[in-house]
Automatic annotation (TrEMBL):
It comes from Caenorhabditis remanei (Caenorhabditis vulgaris). Signal peptide: none annotated. This is Phospholipid/glycerol acyltransferase domain-containing protein. One of its GO terms (biological process) is phospholipid biosynthetic process. Keywords: Acyltransferase, Lipid biosynthesis, Lipid metabolism, Membrane, Phospholipid biosynthesis, Phospholipid metabolism, Transferase, Transmembrane, Transmembrane helix. GO terms for molecular function: glycerol-3-phosphate O-acyltransferase activity. Pathway: Lipid metabolism; Phospholipid metabolism. The lineage of its organism: Eukaryota, Metazoa, Ecdysozoa, Nematoda, Chromadorea. The chain crosses the membrane at residues 110-130, 137-156. The keyword Hydrolase does not apply. One of its GO terms (cellular component) is membrane. Residues 167-285 form the Phospholipid/glycerol acyltransferase domain. It is found in: Membrane.
Length: 376
């Protein structure tokens, strides 16, 4: 926090720098061009249909909602990028040397210590068959140490709404580090989380392997529908158990990481009303470091976070939500998504994260064309 205050003072003295307002504002009553929208529209003719499509097309040119969740924000005034003003160059050079010459080696030491702690503590707990509270203590401590090594400053709000068992905690998704971020907010004498997530290779694979010694772990292969269905069934059965050592399940129903400018469409699988849903909203200030995982592999992303000034996150616990008798799974998932988006003052998009792929976008465009042709 001292570093952040110093940086704020330094930024205030930069040439041409003005404090930027948050640019992620929620659009009220915004219309999105989707298959559902076309199906529900009552067009009286081709002129009315084409007029609306032209308006939606202009709106997409002004703000492309398909690519907006995956754009990398570049805060020019953060000293993380080469400055346009020549007079700001000395600040950038000093900052670059400080981040790579001091912060990165220091955080690398913290990361090494965190990994040694993870391996040693999980090994000891397994060997001595320790009680669940000791596993929980080690898991929370590792999460805090990991956050320290990535330069994370996180604040937790509305702690009275923390997830409880039986229940499912759902959060918007920035990166694989979200697990450690949210887990570090657990109380030592409270409950932890049963972790779910996308299975990965490389460094993340081993991180999950050893982390699974400290807390229950359920992984899914996003490319395999059969695997996803099995995971859903495992979660449902888990939440029905009456084991006093069970934890609420932590899910990221967006399925893909986004840049915290929007909230992607939630997958409806777990929103069947069989258990309470605890929404968690994660909001970042990207001025001194961006937590969005945009790289193809994890190690380059980890190095980027460890060489940034810091990453500032706010985590908000929302009250538990329950499925209404008049809702289906899709409507309940949409309501939870909109609750998180409203808390973050962001748009809740009706698009799945897979549309960042050019191939998937072409498929979706064909669906829109087919639906419009049938409607007319």
């Amino acid at each position: 926090m001292i570093l952040v205050r110093v940086l704020e003072d330094v930024l205030g003295s930069l040439v041409g720098w003005k404090k930027k307002e948050e640019d992620c504002k929620r659009a009220e009553h915004k219309t999105f061009l989707t298959v559902d929208h076309i199906q529900k529209s009552q067009y009286t003719g081709t002129f009315e249909a084409s007029s609306e499509l032209i308006c939606l097309g202009i709106q997409s040119l002004l703000q492309d909602d398909l690519t907006r969740p995956f754009e990398i924000a570049e805060e020019e005034a953060s000293l993380l990028h080469f400055p346009k003003e020549r007079l700001n160059l000395p600040f950038y050079i000093f900052g670059f040397a400080f981040r790579w010459g001091f912060l990165f080696p220091l955080r690398s030491c913290f990361m090494a210590f965190a990994l040694v702690f993870l391996i040693a503590s999980s090994g000891i707990c397994v060997i001595v068959n320790a009680k669940m509270k000791y596993f929980r203590y080690c898991g929370i401590t590792f999460a805090k140490l990991f956050n320290l090594s990535t330069g994370l400053i996180v604040s937790f709000h509305d702690k009275r709404n923390r997830p409880r068992f039986p229940g499912v905690a759902v959060a918007n998704h920035l990166s694989a580090n979200d697990v450690m971020t949210i887990y570090s907010g657990c109380e030592y004498d409270g409950v932890g989380y049963t972790i779910t997530g996308q299975s990965h290779g490389g460094f993340v694979k081993y991180l999950y392997k050893y982390g699974g010694k400290l807390t229950p772990l359920l992984l899914v292969d996003r490319a395999c529908d059969k695997n996803r269905n099995a995971l859903k069934q495992a979660i449902v059965e888990y939440t029905k158990s009456k084991n006093e050592n069970s934890y609420p399940v932590l899910l990221f129903p967006e399925g893909y990481c986004s840049n915290n400018k929007t909230v992607l469409q939630f997958r409806k699988a777990i929103f069947d009303g069989q258990t309470a849903i605890y929404p968690i909203a994660v909001k970042q200030n990207s001025r001194f470091g961006d937590a969005f995982w945009s790289e193809n592999t994890y190690i380059p992303y980890l190095i980027r976070t460890m060489t940034s000034w810091c990453t500032i996150l706010d985590v908000y616990y929302l009250p538990a939500m329950y499925k209404k008798t008049t809702e289906n799974e899709e409507q309940f998932a949409k309501r939870v998504q909109h609750a998180i988006a409203a808390k973050l003052s962001m748009d809740a998009l009706p698009f799945d994260g897979k549309l960042k792929s050019e191939k998937e976008r072409m498929k979706y465009k064909e669906k829109l064309r087919t639906c419009l042709a049938e409607k007319l």
